[in-house]
């Protein structure tokens, strides 16, 4: 009798509600647990991806390496959510945003303690790993 295949479902620890449990980039969760927000970089063509991808969408290479999302990015756009998907209702209102780091952009949530009046396009922000009260992991944007 063959042993059942082990499922790598580390991604079920991601976010308020995890919509994906099995991916080829589950190391992302281990890095997040250690306080690092990571993307992937194509070794063959140098393009950077966030969220991390196992394959390059430009040259189709699967030779990827991890890089840390670090430094300051600029707030490109943001939106205040007054209605939320199922599972996120208790968080309302909250802000989602895109922060531009130059070689790549990051989509995510703005930390709850960033005052709304401080938000403006161009604001310098950084991405930080975050542990939710439930034990789930995510990342948020804070002022740089
Ligand atoms: Zn590539």
Structure report:
β7 (124-131) and β8 (137-143) form a beta hairpin. The mean pLDDT is 94. The termini are far apart. The strands form 2 sheets. The protein has a 5-stranded mixed beta barrel with strand order 4-5-6-8-7. Strands 2-1-3 form a 3-stranded antiparallel beta sheet. 5% of the residues lie in helices and 34% in strands. It is globular, with a radius of gyration of 16 Å. The chain has 1 helix and 8 strands. It has one helix at 27-33; strands at residues 38-42, 48-49, 64-68, 73-81, 94-100, 105-110, 124-131, 137-143. The protein has 144 residues and is mainly beta. Zinc ion (ZN) is lined by residues 42, 44-45, 47, 56, 58-59, 61. Zinc ion is lined by residues 42, 44-45, 47, 56, 58-59, 61.
- Identify every distinct bound molecule in the structure, by name, code or SMILES: zinc ion
Mean pLDDT: 94
Major sheet summary line: 5 strands, mixed, barrel
Query: What general outline do the C-alpha atoms trace?
Result: globular
Secondary-structure element order, as H and E?
Answer: HEEEEEEEE
Counting DSSP E segments of at least 2 residues, the number of strands comes to 8
